[in-house]
Design a protein that fits this description.
About 80% of the residues lie in helices and about 0% in strands. It is mainly alpha-helical. The protein folds into two domains: about 35 residues; about 230 residues, Orthogonal Bundle (MetI-like fold), CATH 1.10.3720. The radius of gyration is 22 Å and the shape is globular. It starts with a helix and ends in a 5-residue tail after the last helix.
Length: about 270
């Protein structure tokens, strides 16, 4: 009776769980069946799509590195220390995750491009630093980073929460400073989490669309990335090319997720 009960239990759970799994699988199958290998090859041979592909690789990588570089210290502080206002910082970090993408893009546009009290941040970047931001490739990186960093922070905070802090305390009693304990004890133990956070940030940057469209635009051979390529191809009625680029993004996402499983989280057994 117990064995029969277990079978029924797992059967019910499997049926319920399969609804979402089958939905995603059927979405990918529908894309594959709609396009052909010829359509896929023709789409990838377009110079503008090739440019968008390489720009996507570059900007996603830069955004992921920035997310790790900035997100790791913040995640460590939130995980290891309690200070006045930490709840507010914790809430602010989550804003890009729950905020509608178009709102985030509009906020970036207002901050960098529109004058606030007679002062425009874009002018400071252009005149003092020597390069413009809005509707250029730096705007693509900022749009991706604004969201990807939040996911990197959450991943790294979970990582530091799971790491025992006693080795750091012991190292400090033996003469290490907090910085030395962080660099020599905490970070080496968090290497898997770092890899996972980088991978998640890269994948999130790959799928970013709304903020890029508003803040960076979708100018071909300048700010067009793969997500905006799908939009541009749909806008001119080239559905075959849009589906082909979508499949390319699916393949890239699957590779990233496999890396996350194999390297970031480790292979058991």
């Amino acid at each position: 009776m117990r064995k029969r009960s277990d079978i029924d239990f797992f059967l019910i759970l499997g049926l319920i769980s399969s609804v979402y799994v089958l939905l995603i699988a059927f979405l990918v199958i529908a894309d594959i069946r709609y396009t052909t290998l010829q359509d896929f090859r023709l789409a990838l041979q377009k110079p503008e799509i090739q440019h968008a592909f390489w720009l996507t690789l570059k900007t996603c990588t830069v955004s992921a590195f920035l997310s790790i570089w900035i997100g790791t210290p913040l995640a460590y502080l939130l995980a290891r220390h309690r200070f006045r206002g930490d709840w507010l910082i914790d809430t602010i970090v989550d804003i890009p995750i729950v905020l509608p993408p178009l709102v985030l893009g509009l906020s970036l546009l207002i901050l960098f491009h529109l004058p606030i009290n007679g002062w425009e941040l874009e002018n400071w970047f252009r005149d003092d630093l020597g390069f413009p931001v809005t509707y250029r490739w730096p705007a693509v990186v900022l749009s991706q980073f604004a969201v990807a960093c939040a996911f990197a922070i959450r991943t790294m905070r979970v990582t530091f929460d799971q790491i025992d802090r006693r080795p750091e305390d012991v190292a400090r009693t033996l003469g290490c400073t907090r910085l030395q304990a962080f660099l020599q004890i905490a970070l080496p133990q968090a290497i898997r989490g770092e890899t996972a956070a980088f991978t998640i940030a890269w994948a999130r940057a790959l799928g970013e669309f709304g903020p890029i469209l508003v803040f960076a635009g979708a100018t071909r051979f300048r700010t067009e990335v793969l997500s905006t390529t799908v939009f541009l191809e749909l806008s001119i009625g080239n559905l075959e090319a849009a589906v082909a680029v979508s499949l390319l993004m699916v393949a890239m996402a699957m590779v990233i997720l496999m890396i996350l499983r194999l390297v970031g989280l480790g292979v058991r057994g």
